[in-house]
Design brief:
This protein is mostly helical. The protein has nine helices and no strands. Helix 1 packs antiparallel against helix 2, helix 2 packs parallel to helix 7 and helix 4 crosses helix 6.
Length: about 240
């Protein structure tokens, strides 16, 4: 029981700290974006194993013929997202735009969290609108079609809706002049966080819940409620649970 409690409260902060440290090492790698992609794969694998060993609801461990579809969604959405990042950088370089202002002299990790602000606000705002307006809801409802929670269904999204959610934030970062490896660093952190958030792993965020959205990030309170704004990382709105 003590070991399970340690895992329940310790897994999220320990694994996320490891991911953030891995992201911090990206600038010293030969191909930073490839390093970040590998880091995401390692983080997702860890969350998948944790929910297998410590499930919140053992019934959700049973296959529901959803895994192949969710894999396809994940691959397509990750390709769309990272292609958009690279596309902005290529377009910016092609037109000779250096950016309005970006703190290139800041430590890399500080730049990553700086990039997270407009990206996270973009995800939060479009997600909230998607629960209010029919056109956006029709795209977003795919994400709510799961009959169980597990580590991969956070990526069950319509590619157009994924682009609409991230697009405003990416445009802001493109205009500001954020480097691709900085944006990729935040997306790597976010991907592992979302795997936790949608997982069937019986975990608790502890005091971090006040930053991450009270108890909405943990399966026991989140489960099927699928409250508005579940995507956001930063506490834009604490009261929507």
């Amino acid at each position: 029981m003590a070991a399970r409690s340690t895992v329940r409260y310790g897994a999220y902060p320990v694994l996320m700290a490891a991911v953030i440290l891995g992201v911090a090492a990206a600038p010293w790698r030969d191909v930073p974006l490839a390093w970040l992609a590998g880091l995401v794969m390692a983080g997702l694998t860890a969350v998948a194993l944790l929910e297998r060993w410590f499930p919140f609801d053992p019934r959700w461990r049973q296959p529901d013929r959803d895994f192949p579809a969710d894999v396809i969604h994940a691959v397509i959405n990750l390709v769309v997202m990272h292609s958009a990042v690279l596309g902005f950088v290529v377009l910016r370089n092609w037109v000779g735009w250096q950016g309005m202002w970006w703190p290139n002299d800041w430590p890399y990790l500080a730049q990553v969290f700086m990039a997270g602000l407009p990206l996270d606000l973009s995800l939060y705002a479009v997600h909230r609108l998607s629960h209010r307006y029919g056109f956006l809801w029709r795209l977003h409802s795919i994400h709510h079609s799961s009959r169980r929670l597990y580590w991969l269904n956070g990526e069950r999204r319509h590619p157009l809706h994924a682009a609409l959610m991230a697009g405003p934030g990416l445009v802001v970062l493109g205009v500001l002049g954020a480097p691709a490896e900085v944006v990729g660093g935040w997306l790597a952190i976010l991907a592992v966080h979302l795997a936790f958030q949608h997982s069937n792993f019986d975990y608790r965020a502890g005091p971090l819940r006040y930053l991450l959205g009270n108890l909405c990030t943990t399966p026991p309170t989140r489960s099927w409620r699928r409250v508005q704004g579940q995507y956001r990382f930063v506490g834009w709105d604490r009261n929507r649970c």
